[in-house]
Design brief:
The chain is of the alpha/beta class. The protein folds into 2 domains: 161 residues, D-Maltodextrin-Binding Protein, domain 2, CATH 3.40.190; 138 residues, 3-Layer(aba) Sandwich (D-Maltodextrin-Binding Protein, domain 2). The N and C termini lie far apart (91 Å). InterPro entries: DctP_fam (IPR018389), TRAP_DctP_sf (IPR038404).
Length: 348
C-alpha cells in the first residue's frame, strides 16, 4: 500500500538539506574567523587601548565582515614583565603586543636613536618621524615580527612630589623613575638617580617616598594616577624638543599573520602602518593637552622650563649622545648618520 506523504512532511524534508547547507556555511565562516589576543603593560582604561587599539579592532571587524575580533589582556594579564612582551609576541603567547622596545635593553639598538635626548617635539610629528626612521634603518632588527606601528609617547616630562625641576642643580639628589635605558643615562648625566620599575608601581613608590618622582609622558599620568602623588610638572620651553621620548611599537607574531587568509591580511595591512601611526600620534597629543588641563584644574603646577636652564640641561646631557655613538659603533653601526637622520625627520 502506498503511503500518503503529508505536505508538511514534504516541506520539512525539502528544508532539511537547505538547513544543513546553511549550518555548514556558517561553520566554514566561523572557522575562517580570527580572534587576536592583544596584551600590553598599562591598565585597560589607558588611551592606548581605549582610544587607539579598541577603535582599530572595531574597524578590522567591520572591514572583515565580523571575521576579525580582538581579545584584550591589559596590565600583563598573559604573564611576564613588560621587558618580556616582545618575546610573548615572538613566541606566539600573544598574537599582538603593544610595548616599548627600550624595555628590552640592548635588543633594538637602532630604533633607540629616536629616544636620544632632545629629538622629539610632540606625539604626531615624533610618531611620523619614528615610523619613517624605522622604515629607513630599523626594519632588519624587527624582522622576527609583523610590525603594525612604530610611534612615540610625545616626550617625557618631569613629574615630582616635593619640589619642581628647574635648573640642572635642582636634580641633584633626586631619585626619579626612569622608563628606558636612555632616560636612565640622561638622569645620571644630570645628577639625579634613576630608578627602574614598571609603570604600575610608580605611584605607590612615590607615595611611600621610595622615589621623588618620575620622568614620563603626559599620556601615562592618569592611567597610573601619577597626578595624585605629584605636585610639580616641568616641560621644555614651548616648541622645543623634549628631554627624551619612549619609542612604542605594535608587534604581531609573524607566523600568525602569515597564516591568515589573503583578504584578512589586506584588512590588517590597510589599517596599519602610516594610518595607525597617525592615530597614535593624534591621540597622544590630544591626551597630552587634556592631561595638562586636568593636572592644572586639580591644583598641580605646570611650568615650561626657562630657556637658559633648558640650554644648560642640553649641554649637560651632551655626553649621553656621545657615549651612545661609541657604544653603537662597536656593533659596526654609524651612529652619527642615524642621529642626523632622526633629528632631520623629527624637525620636519
Amino acid at each position: 500500500m502506498l503511503k500518503t506523504i503529508r505536505p508538511a512532511a514534504l516541506a520539512l524534508a525539502t528544508l532539511l538539506p537547505l538547513a544543513a547547507l546553511t549550518i555548514a556555511a556558517t561553520s566554514v565562516a566561523a572557522a575562517d574567523g580570527v580572534s587576536l589576543k592583544i596584551t600590553h603593560f598599562l591598565p585597560p582604561g589607558a588611551p592606548a587601548q581605549k582610544q587607539v587599539l579598541e577603535p582599530w579592532c572595531k574597524t578590522l571587524g567591520e572591514q572583515s565582515g565580523g571575521r576579525i575580533t580582538c581579545q584584550f589582556y591589559p596590565a600583563m594579564q598573559l604573564g611576564g614583565t613588560p621587558a618580556q612582551l616582545v618575546d610573548l609576541a615572538k613566541n606566539g603567547v600573544a598574537d599582538i603586543v603593544w610595548t616599548a622596545p627600550g624595555y628590552s635593553a640592548g635588543r633594538f639598538p637602532v630604533i633607540e636613536t629616536m629616544e636620544l635626548p632632545f629629538v622629539v617635539r610632540n606625539g604626531l610629528s615624533g610618531s611620523r618621524a619614528a615610523w619613517d626612521f624605522y622604515q629607513h634603518h630599523a626594519v632588519e632588527e624587527f624582522a622576527a615580527y609583523k610590525v603594525l606601528a612604530v610611534h612615540v609617547d610625545g616626550g617625557v616630562a618631569f613629574h615630582t612630589a616635593g619640589k619642581p625641576i628647574a635648573a640642572v642643580d635642582s636634580l641633584k639628589g633626586q631619585k626619579l623613575r626612569a622608563s628606558t635605558r636612555m632616560v636612565s643615562k640622561l638622569l645620571t648625566a644630570l645628577g639625579a638617580t634613576p630608578v627602574n620599575m614598571p609603570p604600575a608601581q610608580v605611584t605607590e613608590a612615590i607615595s611611600k617616598g621610595i622615589v621623588d618622582g618620575a620622568m614620563g609622558a603626559w599620556e601615562v599620568v592618569t592611567p597610573t594616577k601619577l597626578q595624585e602623588v605629584t605636585r610639580f610638572h616641568t616641560q621644555p620651553p614651548a616648541g622645543q624638543p623634549y628631554y627624551s621620548t619612549t619609542v612604542l611599537t605594535l608587534l604581531m607574531n609573524k607566523e600568525r599573520y602569515q597564516s591568515l587568509p589573503a583578504d584578512l591580511k589586506a584588512v590588517i595591512d590597510r589599517n596599519s602602518g602610516p594610518a595607525l601611526v597617525e592615530s597614535f600620534g593624534q591621540v597622544w597629543d590630544r591626551v597630552t593637552a587634556d592631561t595638562r588641563a586636568l593636572v592644572a584644574r586639580d591644583g598641580g603646577t605646570i611650568q615650561n622650563q626657562d630657556p637658559a636652564d633648558y640650554e644648560a640641561m642640553r649641554a649637560a646631557a651632551a655626553p649621553v649622545e656621545a657615549e651612545w655613538r661609541q657604544d653603537i659603533a662597536k656593533r659596526g653601526i654609524d651612529g652619527a648618520a642615524l642621529v642626523a637622520d632622526a633629528r632631520a625627520l623629527a624637525a620636519r
